[in-house]
Amino acid sequence: DPDSRVSKEHDDESLRDVKLKTTDVSDWSSYTTVYIGYPIWWGEAAWPVNAFVRANDFSGKTVIPFCTSASSLLGSSASNLAKLATTGDWKEGQRFSSLANTQTVEDWIKQQS
């Protein structure tokens, strides 16, 4: 859909710098493991996620990215977020298709522990 947000932001990179209402996480310093989930847009993490990643210090944290997509693969989306963050121990990440159910996600989370 050429009128969709993702298409407009794909065609005009100046629209990708989305100002978030907040990038603050309550009690951020207490977290040692952070899961970052996002949809895939044009082979990348949805652009608003970039602002969150850039705004936070992931030092001392294990970061586990995951994405949802009906057709795109994880690709380099997780490693690109890690480059933006510059800190943290970023793991490989996981893609969940539109067919993933609750049990699939729960089993994956248990494997991360």
Task: Pick out its properties.
113 residues, 5 strands, globular, 32% helix, five-stranded mixed sheet, alpha/beta
Provide an overview of this structure.
The chain has 113 residues and is an alpha/beta fold. Helix content is 32%, strand content 20%. Helix 2 packs parallel to helix 3 (77-85). The longest helix is centred in the C-terminal third of the chain and has 11 residues, at 102-112. The N and C termini lie far apart (39 Å).
Cα separation of the termini:
39 Å
Q: Unreliable runs, pLDDT <50, ≥5 residues?
A: none
Class by alpha and beta content? alpha/beta
Helical percentage: 25-40%
The total beta strand count reads: 5
Query: Secondary-structure element sequence?
Result: HEEHEHEEH
Gyration radius from CA atoms, angstroms: 15 Å
Quick one: biggest sheet?
A: 5 strands, mixed
- Strand percentage lies at 15-25%
Number of helices: 4
**For the residues shown, what is the average pLDDT?**
89
Apparent shape: globular
Brief summary of the model shown:
32% of the residues lie in helices and 20% in strands. The mean pLDDT is 89. By secondary structure, the chain is α/β, with parallel strands linked by helices.
